[in-house]
Structures are given as structure tokens and as C-alpha cells.
Write a structure and sequence with these properties.
alpha/beta; two-stranded antiparallel ribbon; Glucose Oxidase, domain 1
Length: about 160
């Protein structure tokens, strides 16, 4: 996959891209990633996260709005490995991860607001394929997400840089 450079996308596509507010930490071996978005809205429960990552990723990016909770992790080493095995490009978590050393050894890109060693609940609560609002951006299923060391951004279509 060709490296993603969000700064270049911002320069070329201007107002067509929506830049997420900073504050997300990078995990995983994949430092840049991009793909169409699949969304989940959960709170301290990662049952739907596992269900999504169990499916073929087909080069998509899973965006999980965990309500910015720092009381437990929604992604750990096992789920990151599952995502990589199933062809997901990356995962954005508005919440925490755990087993960061395992995630960092996995061929996946992950962005999260932090780490927490506590695992989440398993009650199956949440919503799939819903529009999310966090980090100052609106994220709709089917949008395209582009991430690198500078942050991540959202576009309503796949962007084909000319440079």
C-alpha cells in the first residue's frame, strides 16, 4: 500500500477533507492507513467490536465511538490480531486500548485516546452503522478515513492524489 500523507491530502483537497482534532495516540505496526469506514457506537462494551472484526475487513477501517471513556479498553492484542488476520486496514477508537505491546507488534494501524489495562463489559450493547460525532468531525458509514503520524481525516469519497 502506498504511504498516506494527510498533509498532502489537506493541501490538494482543501475543504473536502475534515480533520480530526489531535489527541489520538498511534499503535500498531502500520503507521499510515486508509479505507472506507464502518462505524460502531458503544460504551465500555466491546462485544460489537469483536463481532465487526470477526468479519472480513476488505480494506476497511473500523471507527469505534466509545464515548471517550478511559475506564476500560475496547481493543486489546487479541482483537488487533483478529483485525489484521481479517484484512482490516485500521481501527480508530474514541476510547482506550490495552495490551499495547501486543498491538504494536501487529500489522494493523490503531489510533486511540489512551491505554487502560481493564477489559470492557460483554453485554452486546451499542449501535452499528450509525453516524458518529467526535474529535470535531462527523463520521458516516462509507466515508473514507486517512491516517498517518500527523493525525486522521475524513472525506466523503475516496481521494486520488495527483502528486
Amino acid at each position: 500500500m502506498k504511504p498516506i500523507h494527510t498533509a498532502d491530502l489537506c493541501d490538494e483537497f482543501g475543504d473536502e477533507v475534515h480533520i480530526a482534532e489531535p489527541g489520538f495516540r498511534a499503535f500498531g505496526k502500520r503507521r499510515s492507513f486508509a479505507g472506507p469506514v464502518v462505524t460502531l457506537n458503544v460504551f465500555e462494551d466491546n462485544t460489537l467490536v469483536r463481532q465487526a472484526l470477526d468479519m472480513p475487513g476488505d480494506g476497511r477501517v473500523l471507527v469505534v465511538d466509545g464515548g471517550a471513556s478511559v475506564r476500560c479498553a475496547l481493543i486489546g492484542g487479541n482483537l488487533a490480531s483478529l483485525a489484521a488476520q481479517n484484512g482490516w486496514q485500521g481501527i480508530i477508537v474514541n476510547g482506550c486500548v490495552r495490551d499495547s505491546h501486543e498491538i504494536n507488534a501487529t500489522e494493523i494501524g490503531v489510533r486511540a485516546i489512551g491505554t487502560c489495562p481493564r477489559k470492557s463489559k460483554k453485554q452486546g450493547k451499542g449501535k452499528t452503522n450509525t453516524t458518529l460525532f467526535f474529535a470535531g468531525v462527523k463520521i458516516t458509514p462509507g466515508d473514507y478515513l486517512y491516517a498517518d503520524e500527523d493525525g486522521f481525516l475524513i472525506a466523503e469519497r475516496a481521494l486520488e492524489p495527483t502528486g
